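Sync notes, pocket subgroup
Present: LS, DG
LS reminded everyone that the earlier model was apo-only. Rerun requested with heme C included. Inputs:
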Amino acid sequence: MKGRYIPFFVCTLLLVIMISTAVIKPSPITIEIPQGWPQPTNNPFTKNILTEEGFQLGRKLFYDSRLSKDSTVSCASCHQQFSGFATFDHDVSHGINNGLTTRNAPGLLNLVWMSTYHWDGGITSLETQALSPLTAPNEMGETAEGAVAKIKSDPDYVKMFHAAFGSKKITEKRMLNALAQFTSTLVSGNSKYDKVMNGKATFHRVEERGYTVFKKHCATCHEEPLFTDNSFRNIGQPLNRFNDIGRMAITKNPKDSLLFRVPTLRNIQVTYPYMHDGSIFSVPQVIDHYRFLIDTTQPTLDPKLKSRINISDRERDELTYFLYTLTDSTFLNNKRFSRPHNIKETQPIHLH
Ligand code: HEC
Ligand code: HEC
């Protein structure tokens, strides 16, 4: 009698073994390139294959405050979606223990079209970038090992690492790769400006006039369609209270003193305050800097700005309206990039 059951048991056993060792195949995804844009310049995904599971894991990590030493600050504390992933209303960023950084948090968008990161271009890979805020004592103040140890204890992460990388091993490299998978997909290219360029909308005549001013005075550095040429320039602001010398801190070349990365102007309406130190609070004030406040005595000042920018009050307002057409509400409200349900809301950043 018993013998009759043996094949049944063997089959069941085989089935169980097959299911449990089945190769997990993450599903590859691609970065959507908006119409008319160039190919990304810094595609990190030759080895770190971009997948839906890796993206979802990176998204959870991005919103997880456990990545910081005292579990109060996540990447999203300083990079808020409604503000184009910049910090809304803060000149410089705030980290754990009310620590202050010396720079304004840039919006996170279209990162794979950038060849260097940070205001001074001190970082060249998106995958290693995350180590900088994670370990800086005035940002998240944690060690990579410390963060890994914490997330290892969450069974949800064990499942997610397995799904993203095919095994349950949680390592620093995998954590950083997943974060880069999330941040690299933050593409913003669906503003009114883009719709106009693709023939799907028209500018108001004020915006149209602003666009003409823009092309004449601003587009050489804030080059379309990304609104940056990724270069480093000095636009004649005074040395700030942190004595931030910009690009020179990286290259040690005095010619690079006070040069900062040309930032994108996409979503500029919501990413204020502006500049590397958040010293300017509104777009018209930024334009007034170019009109009246450029320090023309600085030896490294960009030659284009030697005689400041000569535009009228009316042109300044038209230019402002044009810049507001770069707001991409689809991006700012895209649920795919928002806090996932499997992570608690991070605490609001401390106000000073
Ligand atoms: C305490 C605030 C703070 C936290 C937390 C933080 N960042 Fe940032 N982030 C900044 C600041 C400030 C900069 C600019 C740094 C510089 O230029 O030196 C920046 C720059 C960046 C950049 C480069 C953007 C560019 O345009 O060059 C990326 C990418 C980024 N952060 C991702 C992350 C990720 C991922 C995390 C979480 C692991 C994180 N950040 C946590 C404040 C923060
Ligand atoms: C010579 C190159 C150059 C020209 C021309 C130029 N910019 Fe800039 N722009 C920069 C650089 C570099 C920065 C960053 C400076 C800093 O952080 O200290 C910047 C910053 C900005 C910012 C702040 C962005 C942010 O995220 O903080 C705005 C807004 C801006 N520029 C608008 C304009 C407008 C409008 C014009 C034309 C009137 C213009 N720029 C002309 C190089 C240029």
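DG: Residues 62, 67, 73, 75, 77-79, 93-95, 101, 103, 105-106, 108, 111, 117-119, 129-130, 133-134, 139-140, 179, 183 surround heme C (ligand 1) (CB under 6 Å).
LS: Residues 348-352 have pLDDT under 50 and may be disordered.
Action: DG to write up.
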